[in-house]
Amino acid sequence: MIQTIRYTGQKADDILNRAEEQKKDVTAVVTDILANVKSRGDAAVLDYCEKFDGSRPRSLLVTQEEVEAASQSVEPALLRTMELAAANIRRFHSQQKRSGFVDTMPGGAVLGQRVLPLQSVGLYVPGGTARYPSSVLMDAIPAQIAGVENIVMTTPPDQNGNVPPVILAAAKLAGVKTIVKLGGAQAVAALAYGTESVPKVDKIVGPGNIYVATAKQLCFGLGLCAIDMIAGPSEIMVIADGKSNPVHIAADLLSQAEHDKLSSAWLATDDEAFALKVRDELERQIPLLPRQEIARASIDDNGRIIVVDDLRKAAQVANEMAPEHLELSVDDPFGLLPFIRNAGSIFMGRNCPESLGDYLAGPNHTLPTGGTARYSSPLGVDDFCKRSSYLYYTKEALHAVADDVMRFAEKEGLHAHANAVQVRMKEDDHE
Question: Is there a catalytic annotation at residue 325?
């Protein structure tokens, strides 16, 4: 049964249990995989396919014929749903796209910034017991909007060497042209180094198991590519007043608890009687779930109901926890919103369950976990761009600031820096 706690100002970490994945040292194993893929390319990744996925594809790349056949095999109603989701994701993320700027200063200086798309990115789509076509849309569409030329998706094949049709259909909707039948650390290695079949990319995004996460970290550390984030267990926090429906709130908490035994579900409310109703409703709903064993472990081990004096205190708890998903099930969610500083995605009002954001609304569902929403943001168009600054000075503009530049450089003991300005001043004096 979920624990109920009265909040009296304790540190959030003292009352809320945020589960951590059991860490095991796989660095040596992953390092060997990286080295093998670097030296042997396709031959290495095909060996790993056979070893870990139980199949050795004749080709690592999915053909256009396979994509078309997959799209035609997906039930029309689901395809229409994915098309609606893709349109909403595209509409939302299109508004994130930024342009550079030019600042013309008095005296002849021009400063500016360019915002450019990355040339190539890799999207890692996990396999295993569940496949998530929604994640294909969430990862690929912002990259497409950013203007990335080469989007490469990798995902483990099944034992017959095939990628599930729904994943291929989602990739087609998102405009992904290059799809690789490959998973695990070997997929990350192939994207980071490049092989005969797999293009080398500048950045790798997408969640995975500890081998995938370790491979991403190592490749980033080696300077091979950028990465998005290391995703942890899913989490949800709901701030609810006593007017909320306990049936709805319990269902919302369980929507994340069913993900993983390490997932966390937290409720903060200013109504103790309501808290008890939600607790009882959780006990009623859990046995009805197909994934009840997972949900039960998540709720019992990591779930919390926190009773607070008022909703401002609830916002304070939320800011300390920085949850991945935060629901504001209150009369005036827009009035409470200014007090929320740390959350991955915020769901406003009583008719906005977290599931809406996971699949259809448009904002990205790839979110910071483990409290990293204190300093991280949801995946978006900016993640697929880079910025370059530029500056132009006329001779007169350089003369105007030359003494200041040289003074600063000499103060730091970098005399060659000062000299790069000084030689120009001397030349100009002799003209």
Answer: yes
